[in-house]
Design goal:
mainly alpha
């Protein structure tokens, strides 16, 4: 059976649509305006860059410095993952895939790094072997 739709086998031009118009304009909807004004969820703790941590190293023990760096990496990775999900489903999708943020922070640092796929060769994980995000022993 022959293709009668395009007998000469000439390629048809493809059409792509790049514009999506909303059914209701944001000016006429209170909920849409509210959603547009919402800020993204930011769970990060104010963390210092690695260069500033090295400068403060004389004041803190090695354990405290390594714990602070590990906590900064965990917070940064959690924020990256959460921000990669769609706006309205961030918390649900994160908890389905990884568990709650509190549960991850209660894990041992090495387990949290493994679960979040964090690779940090500059952090001495032997010092942080049996502690969690808050510095408590697991």
């Amino acid at each position: 059976m022959e293709n009668t739709h395009n007998p000469k086998n000439v390629p048809c031009p493809k059409v792509s649509v790049n514009e999506h118009r909303l059914l209701v304009s944001p000016n006429k909807s209170k909920k849409l305006a509210e959603m547009a004004n919402k800020l993204p969820v930011d769970l990060s703790v104010n963390t210092l860059p690695a260069s500033e941590l090295k400068a403060v190293s004389g004041l803190k023990s090695e354990f405290d410095i390594e714990l602070q760096q590990a906590c900064g990496l965990i917070d940064k990775r959690i924020n990256e993952i959460i921000n990669s999900f769609p706006q309205g489903k961030r918390a649900n999708l994160f908890s389905l895939r990884f568990g709650s943020v509190a549960a991850i922070k209660s894990l041992a640092i090495t387990a949290a790094f493994h679960k979040l796929a964090i690779h940090a060769p500059h952090i001495n994980l032997r010092v942080l072997k049996s502690v969690n995000y808050h510095g408590d022993t697991v």
